[in-house]
Structure formats: structure tokens, C-alpha cells
Design a protein that fits this description.
The chain is of the alpha/beta class. Helix content is about 40%, strand content about 20%. It has a 15-stranded mixed β-sheet, with helices on both faces.
């Protein structure tokens, strides 16, 4: 068969395949319209490559039975959720936290969409520095008596990662049960063989959504971005820090790493434990975890902070963390402080921020000056430019790289977790955030924001309007790609 004949056969076949795939995107996948048009353009302008890219990045996730854990009924969580929803609806719920009742609509929404119980007995420590966070974590690992559950999107086997693994090995030798879960894409240079010493002493290691074959992963676009540690069912960690030397500010490319993380003692540790068990059982093919009292011990009251642990991901249609963000923003009366490494909002989020700013609320957004993803950075720059026109204030963090994912409103309510303000965190990644109903903690987070402002340059509307044509070009190209970033 001649080359000309082969091309005559191949080209129409490729065209038909692209037409069929485009029809599937439109009629079956039911994507957001902007994402649909973006993928149709990719399919028709780069037919063969576009087809492969769609298979890797474009398809929706099959959701049925993705996360299952029969132990839910054993811890009585369903009854507690039912009681809290009914009590809030009937206005009989006992709010023991100052001002928490002002946010009962938000609390109820999280109960309804995410089964996120409200706990009101927590003690929280905020970390805004990696060295302090990991020192506390290593101390808690050293103090563990029964089990350590540890889950990170990125877990590097560098100096910090090795210190943590060695600490886990030591505890495993003492009889503490160790389970470690990492995401394959986030930790792409890490293999199970790197944990052979931990495995040899009884530790267990699992990988979230691993590849079927090398470089072949049909679920490549859906990553577990959560960072959770639970120790003895009594101490929990949640926030933005992964495990790697760069999170200690030791990588020259980024310099100082500014992130926000929380250490929790109190009943909110149990929802964190439940989230870990669900993720572990999804990743684990053999030794799935069932209910045990050891994972959910009775916890004496440690404090008076109110928390809801809220998860989201492509296994749900609700985008629970995003709508939680929106509800927080809509409830603000005085100010909204946002820190995020990526600001690529969808239309609903962008409108909410614009409305707040145009209503006279003090809206401040802090983003990094050191990009770790170039297209994402310039898309971020384009969106914050729109907000300047509405009266929001934008600050560019100059000291290093800001990776914190926090929103604070009115010194009363706040959220800290793993979800960025972008399409990927809202609808593609598996994320987890703590929503906090506590004036002292929210005030502390606001003070951290204001302290960070001293390490920022304010991006004014005048500066933005005078940006170069090259920057405008980068923004335009990057913004076109935002539906598929």
C-alpha cells in the first residue's frame, strides 16, 4: 500500500473519530460550555494529538462506588448528621460558639451537601512556617501510641521526606501501625520501593490512582490533592504543606515557602480520620480498613473552636468547597481576605468577588510573584486585573512563594485547606478544607494576612493598565487555556 493510499485511509478515519468524540463531549459528558468549546477546538485543530489529550485529560470520572466505607454506620455519623440538620432547621440546635449561629446557613449547607458534621470542642494551632509545622508533626509522630495515618499529594524522598520516613520506621518497630498514602502524579518520582524499610517493619504504603502501565493512566487528570495526618485518632493535621525540602524554603527556585497549615485536637479529628479511611480503602486493593474503636477514641473537650471538615472532588456534582467559598464571600459584611497561589475562578466565583467589592466590602487578594506554572500564573494575573476595576486590592507576595489556601471574613469565619481558587481544585482534584467558626482563629488568620502584606507589592489599577504588550499577550493566551488547565 502506497503512502498516498494510507493517508487517504487514515485522514477520513481520524476525522470521523474526532466528530464522534466531539459529539460525545457535547451530548454525553455535559461539561461546562466553555470547557466543551475548548475541547472541541483542540479536537478539530490537532486531530490525532487532540484525541489522545482528551483521553488523558478530558473525560469525566466514573463516580459510582468510588469511595465506600461500611464503618460509617458503626460510628453513628449518619444519626448525628440527621440530628444536626433537623435541629438547625427547627432552630433548636445548641450553638456553643460565639457568632457561629450567624453562619448556620453555611453550616447546614455543608451538612446537606457533604455530610460535614459541626464539632464545637476543638483546639487549633495555626502554622504559617514549614519548619515549625514539621517540627510539631515529628514530635507528634514520636508521641504516637497506636497508629499514624499520613496522606500527602507530594511526598518527596529528600532530606525532609527521609526524616519523616525514618521517624515512621522507628514507630513501626515499637508496634505503632503506620499507613502512608500518596498521589502518584504529585509524587511522580516516588515508588513503593523507596519505602521498603518501612514496609519491612509492618508499615503499609498505597498509591492513589496509579498508572496501569508506565506513562499510561486513564485517570491522570483526577488527582488526590489532600494533605491529612491523623495520629492515634486524637491529633489531626490539614492544610497546604506537602512533604519536601522546598516546603522548608530550601529550594532556590521558590525561596521562602509561605503556607498555612492547622494542627487540630478535638472531635474534628474524627471526620479527618473518616476522610483518610475512605481514601485509603479506594487506593488499597487488599487490606481495606474497617471500623475499630482504636481509630475513633473518645476525645475529651480540648477547646471551643467550631469546625467542619469539608471534602470535594470529581466524585460529586456539588463542588462542595467552592460553594462553601461562595457562601462565605456572600456572608461577609466588612472584609474578605484571600490567599491563593492560583486565582483562576469560574464565572460564579468571579462575580461573587466583584459584587462584594462593588458593595464596599474590603476585598484583598494575595497571590505569588514566583510562578510554579507559567500559564496558570499569567491567567491569574488577568483575572485579578478584572477585580481591580471593581475596587478589590491585590497584593503580590515578594518574599518567596505563597502557597496558602485561606479565606477569612469579618474576624468571625474562615477556611484553611488544600483547595486553590481554580477549576482544577473546584471540579477535578480531590480536596479537603476545614471551615472554621471561631473569632480568635479567624482574627489570627487575618493578622497573618496583614503581616504578609509587608512582604508584598500592591498591584494597583494604574500599574496593571500600564503593563506591557508582552504581558497582555501572555494573559490572553493563558486565559484561553483556563478551561482545560
Amino acid at each position: 500500500m502506497s503512502l498516498f493510499t494510507e493517508l487517504n485511509f487514515f485522514v477520513p478515519l481520524t476525522l470521523v473519530a474526532n466528530i464522534l468524540l466531539a459529539m460525545m463531549v457535547i451530548f454525553l459528558e455535559r461539561k461546562d460550555p466553555s470547557s466543551t468549546w475548548a475541547w472541541i477546538l483542540v479536537l478539530f485543530f490537532i486531530p490525532l494529538v487532540g484525541f489522545i489529550l482528551y483521553l488523558m485529560f478530558g473525560r469525566k470520572l466514573r463516580k459510582k462506588h468510588l469511595f465506600r466505607w461500611e464503618g460509617r454506620k458503626d460510628i453513628g455519623i449518619d444519626n448525628l448528621i440527621r440530628y444536626q440538620k433537623e435541629a438547625i432547621q427547627e432552630d433548636t440546635f445548641e450553638f456553643r460558639i460565639n457568632n457561629a449561629e450567624n453562619y448556620k446557613d453555611l453550616i447546614y449547607m455543608h451538612l446537606k451537601t457533604n455530610n460535614a458534621v459541626l464539632t464545637q470542642d476543638n483546639r487549633v494551632k495555626i502554622f504559617d512556617d514549614g519548619a515549625n509545622k514539621f517540627e510539631a508533626l515529628l514530635n507528634d509522630i514520636e508521641s504516637a501510641k497506636d497508629h499514624i495515618h499520613i496522606q500527602y499529594y507530594i511526598f518527596r524522598i529528600d532530606d525532609l521526606g527521609t526524616r519523616i520516613v525514618n521517624a515512621l520506621i522507628k514507630k513501626a518497630k515499637q508496634g505503632v501501625k503506620i499507613r502512608l498514602l500518596y498521589d502518584e502524579m504529585g509524587s511522580r518520582n516516588v515508588k513503593k520501593r523507596h519505602f521498603k524499610k518501612l514496609l519491612a517493619v509492618g508499615g503499609e504504603v498505597e498509591v492513589f490512582f496509579p498508572s496501569i502501565f508506565p506513562l499510561v493512566n486513564p485517570r491522570l487528570n483526577f488527582r488526590n490533592h489532600r494533605k491529612i495526618v491523623v495520629i492515634d485518632g486524637r491529633v489531626g493535621y490539614i492544610g497546604g504543606f506537602n512533604v519536601g525540602d522546598e516546603y522548608l524554603g530550601l529550594q532556590k527556585k521558590f525561596g521562602y515557602w509561605r503556607d498555612t497549615h492547622m494542627r487540630i485536637e478535638g472531635s474534628a479529628v474524627h471526620p479527618l480520620q473518616t476522610r483518610f479511611l475512605l481514601d485509603w480503602n479506594q487506593a488499597c486493593e487488599q487490606q481495606k480498613m474497617g471500623y475499630s474503636d482504636r481509630y475513633f477514641p473518645a476525645i475529651p473537650e480540648k477547646g471551643d473552636a467550631g469546625l467542619q471538615i469539608v471534602s470535594s472532588g470529581p466524585d460529586s456534582d456539588w463542588e462542595q468547597i467552592k460553594i462553601g467559598y461562595l457562601k462565605l464571600i456572600n456572608m461577609a459584611q466588612k472584609y474578605i481576605y484571600i490567599q491563593t497561589p492560583y486565582f483562576i475562578p469560574d464565572a460564579s466565583f468571579l462575580d461573587a468577588i466583584k459584587i462584594a467589592a462593588l458593595s464596599g466590602i474590603d476585598v484583598r487578594i494575595m497571590i505569588p510573584n514566583k510562578p510554579d506554572h507559567m500559564f496558570v500564573y499569567w491567567a491569574t494575573y488577568s483575572y485579578v486585573g478584572q477585580l481591580l476595576r471593581a475596587g478589590a486590592k491585590v497584593y503580590i507576595y515578594e518574599k518567596g512563594f505563597i502557597h496558602a489556601k485561606t479565606i477569612v471574613i469579618d474576624d468571625e469565619a474562615s477556611t484553611v485547606g488544600t483547595a486553590n481558587i481554580d477549576v482544577r481544585s473546584f471540579s477535578l482534584n480531590f480536596e479537603v478544607n476545614a471551615f472554621i467558626y471561631d473569632c480568635p482563629i479567624s482574627h489570627q488568620l487575618a493578622e497573618i494576612f496583614e503581616k504578609d502584606m509587608f512582604d508584598c507589592t500592591e498591584l494597583t489599577l494604574e500599574i496593571y493598565q500600564n503593563r506591557s504588550n508582552l504581558i497582555k499577550f501572555k494573559e490572553s493566551i493563558s486565559r484561553l487555556l483556563t478551561p482545560i488547565l
